[in-house]
Amino acid sequence: MSEETSIRERLLASARCLFARQGYEGTSVRQICEGAGANPALVSYYFGGKEAMFEEVFRSLEMSPALASLLSQPHQAPDEGLRTFIREVIAHRLDNPDISRIIQIEKWTESERSQLIREWSMPIWRNLRTFIEEGGRQGLFRYRSLDTALSCVQALLLNNSSSPYWKDLISYGTEEREALVEDMTRFIFRGLDYDPNRSCP
Q: Over its length of 201 residues, how does the chain's per-residue pLDDT go in tens digits?
């Protein structure tokens, strides 16, 4: 890794950490550079400013091959697609906890940066809707309202129970990842009244 790449990556890592902890508005360029051990002028040099740096935090994220495959080939069996979706979204959330916190902050404050986050995340959530909707059509899932079912599954997948806020109630360690995926999958499929043997209504 070249020195320029190293500095750029350090700036992004510092920004990601501070945006997650303090929010975009509460973070200054000077704080980002102090965290990266870099000259403040380098933010403009590499990114053009703090706003562009925020955008790059999301654009630089890499999806897992399995999640990327879901986006490029959405027409999979709904139950298998949903299982993969649950596993990969949980893995992405656990591997990128700062991103989850940034999304929560920007979403709840309805900031002007929310549109960027929507553009980045909506293709993923549309796939989730497709799996649930198609599963309902095929009789694999049964629910009263597609919107309610989608909202409940989203809430479960986005819930950041590993946040320090919940430390007195919940404690998740990295060694429990597979158990978390298994439990979440079972819970969601039961909530959708999954039955692979049910015929289409």
A: 456 668 899 999 999 999 999 989 999 999 999 999 999 899 999 999 999 999 888 877 766 677 667 666 656 899 999 999 999 888 888 888 888 888 888 877 777 888 888 887 888 889 899 999 999 999 999 999 999 999 999 988 887 666 666 677 766 555 578 888 999 999 999 999 999 987 665
Q: How far apart are CA 60 and CA 47, in angstroms?
A: 12
Q: Name the residue ranges covered by the structural domains of the chain.
A: 7-59, 62-192
Token look-up 């925020």 returns 54
Fold of the 62-192 domain: Tetracycline Repressor; domain 2 (1.10.357)
Place of tokens 């999301």: 58
Is there a contact between 149 and 132 (Cβ–Cβ < 8 Å)? yes
Assigned fold of 7-59? Arc Repressor Mutant, subunit A (1.10.10)
With contact defined as beta carbons under 8 Å apart, do 85 and 181 qualify?
A: no
User: Whole-angstrom Cα distance, residue 86 to residue 2?
Assistant: 37
